[in-house]
Amino acid sequence: MEISELKIFLAVAKKGSISRAAEEIHCVQSNVTARVKQLEERLGVILFHRKSRGVTLTTSGHQLLDYAERIIRLVNEAEAAVSNQNEPNGRLLIGTMETTAAVRLPPLLADYHHSYPQVELHLLTGTSEESLKRLIDYQVDGALVSGRVTHAALVAEKAYEEELILVAPPSVNSLEQVNILKILVFRMGCTYRGQLESWLKETGRRPYQVIEFGSVEGILGCISAGMGISFLPRSVVERPHFQSNYSLHSLPGDFGNMTTWFVRRRREEPSKALLAFRNLIIPLSVPH
Q1: Helices (H) and strands (E) in the chain, counts
Q2: CA distance 210 to 61
Q3: 43 in the Ramachandran plot: left (φ > 0), alpha (ψ -120 to 50) or beta?
Q4: Which domains does the chain have, with CATH numbers?
């Protein structure tokens, strides 16, 4: 088997389509079809079920997928290891929370782009749970997440501490006045949401209605309209153009503390692009 064949196989497996895989790897569709067929003939098995709207892996295809991912990963690590003289370059995918992307990252991304213009940097926003899954599944190279990181295959370094606060409509003057039983939150897997639901349970504010949003702006807009409450980092909402639209309330004990971690895969030589990004986030830190 050739490395190029495995890369084509992986692209088709992940995209579920010959045409989309061809676009992804910048190759003509007929060539992708021919290379997949050659690989199947060489192995003596069918790797994909062909359907009218794409392809799916066969049992043999699933078996090859695991090996192909490991082989390509090792090849990439080898190339990175022997090209230390080069400046950071190539593609870098970072998973991050919506709030972090909105507040913490913009100045860092500007510095990174200025220092390393050869790196093609992409951010994939989502909940901490989604970002960790993407990292484990090799869909991103690193991630910024909140809450505990316990997976043995990952190494986490403290990026910064966030203060969570309760954000409520302007009419709410204290925590004791919080009787709005609608919480405005991100989808399941968000650690801020988990912290809020734990607080509601501990303080006996149940039952409550959950309204899910996909953006910080959506949550804040509906809070200002009086729809409900949320837990968000102080750094997100304590900005001049926001303060008049909400009431902000400090939280007792551990409910107001949240650590953001920079996480990468433990048994993988990080690329120079990833190390440069990590060093901007955490110039002085100790692995956890």
Answers
A1: 11, 11
A2: 41
A3: alpha
A4: 3-81 (1.10.10.10), 90-161+259-281 (3.40.190.10), 162-257 (3.40.190.10)
What is the pTM assigned to this prediction?
Answer: 0.67
CA distance 270 to 50: 36
Distance CA 152, CA 263 (A): 12
Q: Give just the sign of the alpha carbon dihedral 90, 91, 95, 99.
A: positive
CB 94 within 8 A of CB 123: yes
CA distance 270 to 279: 12
Distance, CA of 64 to CA of 9 (rounded, Å): 9
What per-residue confidence (pLDDT) applies to 85? Answer: 57
- Please tell me the distance from the alpha carbon of residue 112 to that of residue 273, in angstroms, as a whole number: 10
The residue-averaged pLDDT of 275-282 equals: 92
Average pLDDT over residues 243-272: 87
Task: Convert the pLDDT of each residue in 203-212 to its tens digit.
Answer: 888 788 899 9
Q: Is the peptide bond before 207 cis (omega within 30 degrees of 0)?
A: yes
Report pLDDT for 111: 93
